[in-house]
Amino acid sequence: MEEEEQLRSLMFLVTYMLLKRMRDINDANIQRRNEIQRRIRHRQYFFQRQRRMLMMMIAGGIRSNARIRTRPWTTTPSTDWWERVVMTEFQPSDWLDKFRMNRETFFYLCDKLRPRLARQNTSFRLALPVEKRVAVALWRLASNIEYRTISALFGVGKSTVCRCVRDMCHAIVALLSSIYLRSPGEQELEDSAQLFLSHWGFPHCVAAIATLHTAIITPSNNASDYANPAGWLSVMSQVAVSGQGHFWDVCASFPGGTDPAEILQNSSLWATAAEGGLSPAPPPTFMGKSLRYVLLGEACYPLQSWLMKAYPEEQGRTASRTALTEQQQLFNGRLARALRVSQEALLRLRARWQCLSKRNDCGLDVVPTMILACCILHNMCESHGDAFKAEWQVEVAEAESPQPSHKQLLSTSMNQSNAEEVRQLFCDYFEEQNKLNN
Q: Which chain positions lie within coiled-coil regions (predicted)?
C-alpha cells in the first residue's frame, strides 16, 4: 500500500512538472513571436521612412528640372484653357469682356500686386502664378458668378477662388490706394472745377457726393439695420466723385439703414472740406468774393458753406409743395444736372464690376474691402483709358435692384449759418448767365 502511495505521488509530481514545462515553452514561443512581429513592424516603419525621404529627394530633383513640372491644384484641361486659350488666344475684346480691362492694364496690375500676391513653391505644390490669381479674382468681381463655376473654369478649388478674391482686394487697397484713391492736389482741383463748369455747367465746384448701396445676403447679426429705404438688405458707401468721374474719397461698410448725413459728418471728408482742404490757399474768387471750392450733394445732406444742395420743395407732411422762386428753380436744375457726374460714375462702376450690382454673397468682413478695391480699379481703368462698353450698363439696368433714394433733410438745425449766403451767390451767377444767354 505504501509503495502504491509513493508511486501515485511520483506520477503526480512528474505530470505537474511536464505540464509546467509545456506552459513555459508556450509562453516563450508567444514572447518570441511578439518580438519578431515588433521587429518586423519597426523595420517596415524604417523602410517606409527611408522611402518617403527618397521620394522627396527625387521630387526635389525633378522639380529642379525645368522641363518636367507637376500641375497641382489644377486639372490638365483647365490649365490648358488658362495657359493656351487665355494667355495666347484671347483677343483684345476678350480681355475687356472677361477682365474689364485691356491686356496691358492687366499685367500692369499684376506687377503692382506681385509683392503681396506672390507665393513660394513647396515640396508638394507649385504656387499659383500671380497672373492666374489676379485673373480668378477679376473674373469674380466682373461677373459675380458662383465660386464653383470659376473653380471649374480655372481648375482650382472653391476655397482657392475665395482666397484669391480676398487676397487681391486687400492687396489693391494696401498698394494702390496711395496712387488711385487719394486727396487731390491743387492742379487736380482746378482741373475738376474746370470740367464741372465746361461739362456740367456748374462753376466753382470740384466734386459731388453720392451714396452706393450694395446688396448682401442676410447677415447673422442685426439684419434689420441693413434694410435700406427700398426695403432690401445692403451695405452703404459714401463716395466723392471728381469732374473726371474718378472717386476721390470712399467710405464703405455702413449698414444700409444708416442716415447718409450721419455718415458724412463722421467721415474724414467732412473734416477735410470744413478745414478748406479741398480748395487752394488763398481761396479763388467767385462773384467778386473770395470763396473756397464747393462740393455738391443730394437732398439728404445738410447745407454747408462748402456743400451745396437743392432748395427743398417739400416743407412738411401737410403742405404738398412750396412755390420756389425762378432763381431757386434754376439753381435746382443746374445742381441736378451737375449731380449726374456722380450718378454716371456709380453706374459705370457697377456695370464694370457687377459684384456691386448683384447680390454679393461674400461675408461682411470682405464686402467693404471689395467695394474699395472696385473703386480703385475703376479709377485705374479710367486713368489708363480702357474702353467701357455700353452693353454693360444695359446688363446692370436689367439685373439690379434700383438704387434707393433717401429722404431729403428738411431740418435746418444742421445747416451752417453762412451757407445760405453762399448758395445765393450761385443763384445770382446762374441768373446772370441765363440773362446773357437769352
A: none
